[in-house]
Write a structure and sequence with these properties.
Elements: H1 2-17, E1 20-21, E2 24-29, E3 35-39, E4 43-48, E5 51-56, E6 61-67, E7 73-74, E8 87-93, E9 98-105, E10 110-117, E11 122-124, E12 130-135, E13 138-143, E14 149-153, E15 161-164, E16 170-176, E17 183-189, E18 195-201, E19 214-217, E20 220-224, E21 229-233, E22 239-242, E23 251-256, E24 260-265, E25 268-273, E26 279-284, E27 294-297, E28 303-308, E29 313-318
Parallel strand pairs: 1-26
Antiparallel strand pairs: 2-29, 3-4, 4-5, 5-6, 7-8, 8-9, 9-10, 11-12, 12-13, 13-14, 15-16, 16-17, 17-18, 19-20, 20-21, 21-22, 23-24, 24-25, 25-26, 27-28, 28-29
């Protein structure tokens, strides 16, 4: 009887949290937005075709950060800003079958310029410190600050979406299988180029269209799929847990803050404690327009920012 009452109380407490409805404080509609990244002091950096903009969460104003330097410079759609908000790229296409990439620091200093033939393109890692150069089926990892080749992976017949671990010890490539409900992760040692492990995820990881939506925390790394957020052991590369543990979810986006994990599942924002992986809060978003491509939580965890890239809409919600 006591066990039954405890279960009922837990059920009631969780569902009572789901009644908390988030209402946007401001809605920002603009020209095309291709990237949004949280930086220090509760500010976000927005990437648009006309330059970078700063979104200040305290003043709730958006202002120019860096306008395009030339009319022929276009921002790279895939990887403008690094996850840590310390670097960003501007890509320039020339008429001589050459492409230049300019690497800037967040204080607007030009750090490096890269030039290469347009046919052999470069992909930027979201760490902001590595480039991937393709030549046929060979891929070279280049350190953006030194312009030196770190490692070459030969005969790599996969789609080269990748991320480098925080300790710089390994690299994760990703690819779809012929079955869209399966996703493969290939883990290599970055220092010696040796293959470590192949991971199969029996779920559709739609975020791989842009990059492996992977986050790292201590001895874990996370990857978001349609039905679940998968958490792997960073040392053994084995699955530790799935946060939602069920099918027919719709995990549109997620964000890992200092204390919590936020997952947008259908119209709910599910908040999990990062240490024990327990659900601690459910926040409701009421309509289809609020199913976001990406969510960001401010540094103080007072605000949630939602963005829809195709509609170029940014909404700011107050959490506390």
């Amino acid at each position: 009887m006591k066990k039954y009452l405890l279960i009922m109380l837990l059920f009631i407490s969780i569902n009572s949290l789901s009644n908390e409805v988030l209402k946007p404080e401001i809605i920002y509609n603009s020209e095309v937005i291709t990237e949004i990244v949280s930086i220090n002091n509760n500010k976000c950096l927005l990437s648009t075709p006309n330059g970078l903009k700063i979104f200040d969460l305290k003043t709730k104003k958006i202002s120019d950060f860096l306008k395009n330097l030339k009319s022929n410079i276009a921002f790279n759609y895939l990887s403008n800003i690094s996850f840590d908000g310390k670097y960003y790229y501007i890509r320039e296409y020339s008429s001589k079958n050459l492409t230049r990439i300019y690497l800037y620091s967040i204080d607007k200093k030009l750090l490096k310029t890269f030039e290469y033939k347009t046919g052999n393109y470069l992909i930027m890692s979201k760490t902001g410190k590595y480039l991937l150069k393709r030549e046929l089926n060979n891929y070279s990892i280049i350190n953006t600050l030194t312009q030196k080749k770190v490692q070459t992976f030969k005969n790599l017949n996969i789609i080269p979406r990748f991320i480098v671990s925080p300790d710089k010890n390994f690299i994760i490539f990703s690819d779809y299988s012929s079955n869209p409900s399966k996703t493969f992760l290939y883990i290599y040692n970055l220092k010696n180029g040796n293959f470590i492990k192949k991971i199969t995820i029996n779920d559709f990881v739609y975020s791989l269209n842009i990059f492996p939506y992977i986050n790292f925390y201590k001895d874990e790394f996370y990857i978001l799929a349609k039905d679940n957020l998968y958490i792997f052991n960073l040392k053994t590369y084995t699955l530790k847990t799935k946060l939602l543990k069920s099918k027919n979810n719709f995990c549109a986006s997620y964000f890992v803050s200092n204390n919590n994990i936020y997952i947008q599942n259908n119209y709910d924002i599910l908040v999990f404690d990062k240490k024990n992986k327990k659900l601690i809060k459910k926040l409701r978003i009421n309509n289809y327009e609020s199913l976001y491509d990406q969510i960001i939580i401010s540094k103080d965890e007072n605000y949630l920012i939602g963005i829809k890239f195709q509609e170029s809409r940014v909404k700011l919600y107050k959490l506390k």
